Amino acid sequence: MSDMPLWERRFRAPKMTLPRWSRNAPDRAVFASNEFGVWQVHSWNVGTGERRKISDHPVGVTQGYASLDGDEVLFWQEDTGDETGRWLRQGFEGGGSEPLFEGLPVGWNDGVALGSGIAAVAIADRDGGFAVFVSIDGGPAKEIARSTEWIGIAGNWEDAGDRAGLSTDGTLLALQHAEHGDVLHPSLRIVDPRTGSMLGERGDGSSSVLATAWSPIEGDRRLAVVHDEEDRERAAIWDLATGAWSNLDSSLPGDVTAVDWWPDASALLLRHGYDGRHELFRYDITPASASRIETPPGSITDARVRPDGSVWYRHTDGVHRARILDDRGDEPIGVRGEAAPAGRPFLDWRYANDQQQQVHGWIVEPDGDGPHPVMVFVHGGPHWLYEDAYFPEVQAYVDAGFLVAMPNYRGSSGYGRSWSDALTGDVGFTDVDDVTAGLRDLLGRPDVDASRTVIAGWSWGGYITLMELGRYPDLWTAGMAGVPVGDYVRAYEEEAPSLQALDRALMGGTPAT
After folding, report:
1. Tell me: the pLDDT tens digits for 411-440?
2. 9 φ, ψ to 5°?
3. Which domain holds residue 383?
4. Predicted TM-score (pTM) of this structure
5. Which of 254, 250, 255, 161 is nearest to 212 (CA)?
6. Is the distance from CB of 310 to CB of 326 less than 8 angstroms?
7. Distance between CA 380 and CA 371 in Å, rounded?
8. Residue 453 and residue 431: Cα distance in Å, rounded?
9. Among residues 228, 172, 225, 171, which one has the least CA distance to residue 205?
């Protein structure tokens, strides 16, 4: 691969996710990687180092877990690339794949959870309905919940259903739903997984309440949650045994999420995100105290506590590709293949929009004094954000001599609920206004060539690109829109029900209305 052009080496460099290990056999773990070209799920024996590719599907497979006993690997496999599919299982040591349990329909994935003697799956169907199914002791699927509004297994958005879905003893199931508001402000419901009976409810639809991890102790009914009732995300503990709700003390300025428990449930692993960078803390519950875990500057996309109390996490920054690290600074597992070439650093960028609000983003500068052509690279979502992370496409444009700027416009996540909600009911205007203000800020820099301005983005970023070119054609020399939202009415008709729910929440109705 070293003979390839630099830009191609950046794109072809393999990546991997943070391994998920079996609860009762922690030396048996599962991760996803594209080290063979297409993303597939792999098994990994932590003790022996043996690795094996589990899935082999041309569309690719990115989500998988080890069963509680470590004997099987569960993974979500799409059928044709339209995102519909099914949960399959395969032996950890090999063999053929078969459905997770009998009677589970094909549809869109809204989460999976595993517990003692029970599994739960949420599926959306082509009629726009959402349903939750359970299997008791490997038996056939039984429907315990159905709604015309979005409903899913807690943790699905963060790929943490194995921690946030079923309690350790399998007697409680956490569901996220939009029945009180919309999919942008989901509520949290706790049900009996065998009957579907509601045992607890939190949230009124005005803010988000998300489950993140059940206590690892059998019979302990404490659930770590994150909410944005006060604008910024804050961690809390909900004790379903008593109903007590306890917000964790925190003076940290950004979003604080409880991502895992220590094995004895005496402490929580917190991730603090502020302006696109992360740090980790151990939060001891009694007495309440937080201590920072030493990690390099940058983004931490996932983190977990091992049974021995060590912390594993996935780290990246603008210069370095993502790596799996532990709290001693070691790399317990690495991706196979040639590492991505180092990138240029992400530099903080702040500017005022037309409402004199501060917009945060990133600038990556090429070699030389300039003036350089400028590319405004717009993220998709829209409820996403650019973080200090390794992006092959960004670095490839910088290699070509562009100064690349990445604004986290209003509507982006990571800056509080009021910032992300600012886009609701005003799509294509609020977000576009912030991107336009960003370009005008860049044109005031002496190292930017005002005659060479390019805008680019994928998905929602492609939509903003088209809107910019249509509204402000004189500001841009060129634009590139990747899989943009062009015909919103038709796109809505063909997309997954969960995305339809997102669109209705953003626009206050369907694109046609």
Report:
1. 999 999 999 999 999 999 999 999 999 999
2. -60, -35
3. 347-482
4. 0.95
5. 161
6. yes
7. 28
8. 18
9. 228
